């Protein structure tokens, strides 16, 4: 990625998809060029949390909501220490933010962090194209001396694909840190950081859990050195088929029978640990309005998603695994994609979406309470 943060206003920009489709607009954020996987997010709010979610590493995010940047950027809502998206695509950026919490404009924040974006794009047409053709590689080019279309397309097609990408170690913490319990400490959880969002350990801390966040490369010995009552595997970017170390680590946890909870990438890791396959979705689920049914209760939840891969597990039968019986606990009502797994003979479960919901609905917050119940049951 090459960027400049000077004079982006009204600078021409071009978005080039790997199938040759081209969209023209204006630079938004940094000026330069960037590459990644083109995906779209249907959330109408929470763009700051989206930008700073490590799961979006190496992705160029297209916002389907037409007006973006209305509330500016503040210093409280970031999910990590930096913006992780490779590029950003919007239709109508706000000229002036309107929020008492705003400290700077979104355009200024993107430019300051060197994130190349494009505005003035027909994001409805772009989203329809990605729905029909599927997520694909993309490049954004901006500046007063743009390459010719053939050169830009060739560069896009040379960029790495998301299939086969091993990315969790690139976004995870390199050193263990602790998020203390709020109020009385009730449990200790070892959280394996595969791209964790900041709100996740906070939600556990609210429930009296002291959270030790460990690197994605942590060993079994390092994990159990914190004497955990439960183990958590986080969200994260990349292809779960490459995540051999997290899978081996999770199998060691399952063998010991420690209560286990995984979300998003962690759900895919549990799927692999149980012997199921994973596959790439045509265009993925991203946004804060995805309907999911909890099959254990029949309840339908509106949930926050960000995943381009899914678990290939039988929807309507209980499966035998090396760790006992397993079943699909949650399913997406839009397309029947597996959205959750649970073991029937060990204290372990996972979901494919974000129960911490920052930003988004709070329908799935009960899942943290379910994790607490598993740890209470194990202690009893």
Question: Can you walk through the features of this model?
Answer:
- By secondary structure, the protein is of the alpha/beta class.
- The protein has 10 helices and 21 strands.
- The strands form 3 sheets. Strands 11, 12, 13, 14, 15, 16, 17, 18, 19, 20 and 21 form an 11-stranded mixed sheet that branches. Strands 2-3-9-7-5-4-10 form a 7-stranded mixed beta barrel. It has a two-stranded parallel sheet with strand order 6-8.
- Helix 8 links the parallel strand 14 and strand 15.
- The protein is globular.
Quick structural gist:
The protein is an alpha/beta fold. Helix content is 22%, strand content 33%.
Helix/strand/pairing class, anyone?
alpha/beta
* Oligomeric state of this protein: single chain
Spans with pLDDT under 50 lasting ≥5 residues?
Answer: none
Rg: 21 Å
What value does the average pLDDT take? Answer: 95
Helix run count: 10
Work out the number of β strands.
21
Question: Could you give a short account of the major beta sheet?
Answer: 11 strands, mixed
Beta fraction:
25-35%
Shape: globular
Distance between the termini: 53 Å
Give the fraction of residues assigned to helices. 10-25%
